[in-house]
Design brief:
49% of the residues lie in helices and 11% in strands. It is α+β, with helices and mostly antiparallel strands.
């Protein structure tokens, strides 16, 4: 769960920016219904293929000779219809498998439309059967399919044009086979042109539904906030830009998907209660380095939601991916701020449990740049549960976190988890900042977890091309100790060790402003001689980031 949103320069890979060719403009529940209609449309096509086969072989044939068009089905047409029936039923199965990947499912659905059009065209032109002056059934496919399964407009136009070209393609194949169609140019024009007219008309319903999706998204209101456009999608839910109806304050709202709450009523009730408890705990954090949680609740349709501040910045995962490993002085500057956030959270008995580069954001906040915000308290857990009913508010036998940054005790589930688990993950973040790599690399999540449990990482100085001070090497390796007892005891201790670690070319406000002015000019702060507020004490929070610096 990400609790803060960054506006001009922070994007997490899990939250892609919508494009004109995709369906990111649609609210998740409407998009889910659209994906379900892929299966419905496939069933409709399967029913049509089955109906034609039944009419030819069960209804017409017992009453005597078939007309030329129907006679075709007893030969070449029958196996084609069987293939169409099998493919349509197969598409129903695929729709069930890919319902959690809507973009991929809609793309596969458009391919299914083209394949179906090709089968119809094959029947139309395999033999020199009189076609009359009727319009091809491909026109029905081109108009019908996008109307009930709208994808991106560009993709629909491309798929429709390809489907429209199936009649000319199979006509050309027929001529190569020596079929003499005995059709005039006018008749061929009449046979082919309507396909292309329908291909362009197919974009109309997609555009209408696109507009409706935007209106639905913007018209929604949660509490005192009006929901705007979709900013991105994550594993737990969708994030929207929002505005307070009275204060006009920009914010970000994260809607938790219903399937993330569990299938049974009991599990949903447990998750909702955990959500309320954890949101209250996170809202009480006051560190400037913790994302601010404005509001939370349950919508009228039963969806949980967070309302968070909107940030301007870049998460540390994208920062390193775009600009390479950081100088030690800058890494120390960022890590110290994260320690301030975690220190408050740990003092209040909160364990983040998912510290990773994408949950730490370097942002612009007022006159400060390189101001760190800690995100995603969705996995936050009380270190000491109190009350007889509290054990029932946690999910047993569930390992939470990200494998590349997961401490051994969490991977093994062998002992109670406290703030030192977050410090281990912070050591992994430090490793990433200094080297552009995680401490361990493995092909699968399980293999990654085993390396965290069994292997010792190389010092960052042996991996990075940048000169790393010995004291910083030692801090990172101490944070990555397998046994929590061998790690620094508190985030405050880590902060003090980082502050006492000398690094070449200290990272000050002038260097930070210069860097942001060069690399992220849209987020450049005004010049000021005031003290950098990032030196203030801070604590851990949750954040979501939007990157508007990219087209």
């Amino acid at each position: 769960m990400q609790d803060r949103v960054v506006a001009p320069h922070a994007t997490t890979p899990a939250l892609p920016t919508p494009t004109d060719g995709g369906m990111g403009f649609m609210p998740s529940d409407i998009l889910e219904q659209t994906c379900k209609r892929v299966g419905v449309a496939s069933l409709v096509f399967a029913a049509i293929w089955a109906w034609v086969l039944a009419m030819v072989h069960l209804a017409w044939r017992p009453f005597g000779p078939l007309p030329p068009q129907a006679e075709l089905w007893s030969g070449f047409g029958t196996p084609i219809a069987v293939i169409g029936l099998v493919i349509s039923l197969g598409m129903v199965f695929v729709a069930g498998k890919l319902h959690h990947e809507p973009e991929k499912l809609l793309d596969v659905g458009l391919g299914f439309e083209v394949v179906t059009a090709s089968l119809v065209a094959a029947i139309n032109w395999w033999m020199a059967v009189p076609m009359g002056m009727g319009v091809s059934w491909i026109c029905v496919i081109i108009i019908f399919y996008p109307a009930i399964v709208p994808a991106g407009m560009r993709k629909i136009l491309l798929a429709s044009l390809i489907a429209a070209s199936m009649d000319p393609l199979w006509y050309w194949i027929g001529t190569l086979r020596g079929v003499e169609y005995q059709l005039s140019q006018y008749e061929l024009l009449w046979a082919f042109v309507p396909n292309y007219v329908c291909a362009f008309l197919a974009v109309v319903p997609a555009k209408v539904i696109r507009g409706l999706g935007r209106r639905v998204s913007r018209a929604r209101e949660l509490g005192a906030y009006k929901v705007g456009e979709l900013l991105g999608q994550g594993g737990m839910g969708d994030v929207y830009r929002a505005t307070h109806r009275l204060l006009a304050r920009p914010a970000a709202i994260k809607l938790i998907r219903p399937e993330a709450l569990g299938e049974s009523e009991t599990s949903r009730a447990v998750v909702v209660e955990r959500f309320r408890r954890e949101a209250r705990a996170a809202a009480n954090l006051r560190s400037p380095h913790t994302i601010e949680l404005y509001d939370f609740g349950v919508s009228d349709d039963g969806n949980l939601y967070y309302v968070m501040e909107l940030l301007e910045g870049l998460n540390l995962q994208d920062l390193v991916r775009r600009f390479g490993p950081l100088p030690p002085a800058r890494a120390i500057h960022l890590l110290k701020q994260a320690c301030l956030s975690l220190g408050e959270a740990h003092d209040r008995g909160l364990v983040h449990r998912d510290i990773k580069p994408s949950n730490l954001v370097a942002c612009r906040l007022g006159l400060a740049v390189d101001f760190v915000k800690v995100l995603d308290f969705g996995l936050v857990k009380m270190a000491a549960e109190q009350g007889a009913d509290q054990p029932y508010l946690t999910s047993p036998n569930v390992t939470t976190g990200t494998p590349a940054f997961m401490p051994p005790e969490v991977a093994l589930g062998s002992q109670p988890v406290d703030g030192r688990a977050d410090l281990y993950a912070l050591g992994c973040v430090a490793y990433w900042l200094l080297t552009g790599r995680t401490p361990f690399e493995a092909p699968t999540p399980v293999a990654m977890l085993m390396k965290h449990v069994q292997e010792s990482p190389k010092p960052p100085s042996e991996v990075s091309e940048i000169e790393i001070p010995e004291c910083l090497d030692a801090i990172v390796l101490d944070l990555l100790a397998k046994d929590p007892e061998n790690r620094p005891a508190t985030a405050g201790e880590v902060y003090r060790r980082l502050a006492d670690c000398p690094a070449p070319d200290p990272w000050d406000r002038d260097r930070a402003v210069s860097w942001w002015s060069l690399h992220l000019p849209e987020a450049e702060p005004p010049s000021s001689t005031e003290e950098d507020p990032s030196s203030a004490a801070g604590h851990e929070t949750v954040l979501y980031v939007e990157d508007r610096s990219r087209p």
